[in-house]
Amino acid sequence: MSKIAIISASVRKGRKSHSVALYFKRYLEERQLGEVTVLDLDAYDFPLFEERLRLIENPTEQMLSFAKQIEEATGVIIVTPEYNGGYPASLKNVIDLLYNEWKRKPVAIATVSAGAFGGSQVITSLQFSLWKIGALTVPAMFPVPTIDKTFNEEGVPADAEAMDKKAGVFINELLYWIKAKQATEA
Fold this sequence. Notes:
By secondary structure, this protein is α/β, with parallel strands linked by helices. It has a single domain, classed as Flavodoxin domain (Rossmann fold), CATH 3.40.50. It is built from 7 helices and 5 strands; from the N terminus they run βαβααβαβαβαα. Strand 4 (about 105-110), helix 5 and strand 5 form a beta-alpha-beta unit. The relative contact order is 0.18. This is NADPH-dependent oxidoreductase.
């Protein structure tokens, strides 16, 4: 069974993107598609990292735990809002904390915005950062426009049937790349 880590990237008060992380957790668990862990960056309350984890003299238990969750995951879903055309510093911070943990890791990207484009402007910059450290970003994206109308705070979509259909394509692509990676390691 796949082990999927879902990174909820926003640490802002009143954040809306976390509802999409909750949706994916429920979607995956209800369909028994994997063992799911939500890594909520707001709960970690990390400082700004001055170095990669392997070079930090006294890493905290939280840093080591986060790294272990990413390392042990067979795939990762990143749920990120779009802030001024980019992704939050909290996400860049944890991407840069790790290196080997990201290498050839299948990563699927879900973007969220209050506007009509669903965070589509953030995809290119986030993909580029992940590519530079060797992550395998899957080609399917999951943009969520007008988040206030699309999901409630508990991660329940306004149009469950349409959202589940869209999520099916997205999740199937992630699972394909997880299996492809596992086949090359066998």
